[in-house]
Amino acid sequence: EALLLEQIAVIGASSNASANELLNLRSRLARMLAKQGFLERSDSIYAAALPKDERVVRGSANKYLASAYAERADLRIAQGRHADAMSDLLISREIRSRIHGAGHERLAEADVVISSPALDMGDPLLARQFADSALLLLSDRIVLAQGSFAPTALRYPGLLCDALMARVAAERAAHPAKPARHHRQRAQPALGR
After folding, report:
1. Burial of 144 (C-beta count, 10 Å sphere; 0-12/13-18/19+)
2. Which of 74, 154, 144 minimizes the C-alpha distance to 114?
3. pLDDT for 193
4. Contact of 98 with 61, CB cutoff 8 Å
5. Considering Cα of 145, then 150, then 156, then 158, what sign does the dihedral take?
6. Which one of 6, 16, 60, 151 counts the least CB within 10 Å of its CB?
């Protein structure tokens, strides 16, 4: 922790300090503190590191900023702040869309993640919307999986399974199963005995 704080101080004092470098170091510090259980300190570091001006965020195509928002969302989920996490995840997804394009599989990753806090907030329809979006973005993987060989060089090979599981979770939350009725079947006497 002390080493990261020193690096942040040195780089922050430099006249040619990179904003991305500072954001990256502050995010590393916040992640480290969160792993140690200091969730409030971690959240305050993210609050200080992330831009206050919404126009800067909304127009950004900065991968470090997208990652920082996604990481803060993880922290907020751990704190039970699902609505705040959802907001951060949507901002991160928006930035990633500007970086990679609207049809990129990285957005499927974001959509799978977004479906979880939507369920936690009690909105299975929103969760399903994002799960369906992920599956749509992964349609090429569905076609590959139906082929005669299994693709082995995909980035994040379990993403399709995760998207399917997000869809199943949303469906179950939207349409809870009725309790099964167990009927005892009476033994029928054998005829002719």
Report:
1. middle
2. 74
3. 44
4. yes
5. positive
6. 16
pLDDT tens readout for residues 44-62: 999 999 988 888 888 889 9
Q: Which residue's entry shows tokens 């997208």?
A: 66
Chain segment 62-104, per-residue pLDDT in tens:
999 999 999 999 999 999 999 999 999 999 999 999 999 999 9
Alpha-helical runs (H) found in the chain? 2-13, 19-35, 39-49, 54-58, 63-78, 82-100, 105-120, 124-137, 139-145, 159-174
Give every CB contact of residue 154 below 8 A, 6+ residues apart in sequence. Answer: 141, 144
Under a CB-based contact definition with an 8 Å cutoff, are residues 77 and 85 in contact? yes
CB 66, CB 44: distance < 8 Å: no
- Nearest Cα residue to 50 out of 104, 111, 91: 91
